[in-house]
Amino acid sequence: MSKSETSVVDRIAQMLPALSDAHRRLADYVLAKPFKVAIMTIDEFASACEVSNATANRFVRKLGLPGYPQFRALLA
């Protein structure tokens, strides 16, 4: 599944300049610790980035994914 992981990480890196401050915090965290995010709940991920769960969900949808479980699966 490393091809999928590369794909989602690449997508995040490409979107980085256009992201809001909150989404950038999430993106920076994922880029720094993709495997850690893969085992975190959305509550843990949002808390680690100091954003709301709704913001974390919007970030995942902005990547073109239906939800956080699919996002985690691509990172795992």
**Would you tell me the structural class of the helices and strands?**
mainly alpha
Major β-sheet profile: none
| Helical content class | over 70%
**String of helices and strands:** HHHHHH
How far is the N terminus from the C terminus?
7 Å
How many β-strand stretches? 0
User: How large, in whole angstroms, is the Cα Rg?
Assistant: 11 Å
Oligomer: single chain
Query: Poorly predicted ranges (pLDDT <50, ≥5 residues)?
Result: none
Number of helices: 6
Using the alpha-carbon principal axes, give the shape. globular
Bin the strand percentage.
under 5%
Mean pLDDT: 92
What's the short story on this structure?
The chain is built from six helices and no strands. The protein has 76 residues and is mainly α.
How would you characterize this protein structure?
The chain has helices spanning 2-15, 21-32, 34-38, 42-48, 53-62, 68-75. It is mainly alpha-helical. Helix 4 (42-48) crosses helix 5. The protein is globular.
Key features?
single chain, 76 residues, mainly alpha, 6 helices, 74% helix, 0% strand, globular
Task: Give the SSE map.
Blueprint: H1 2-15, H2 21-32, H3 34-38, H4 42-48, H5 53-62, H6 68-75
Helix pairs in contact: 4-5
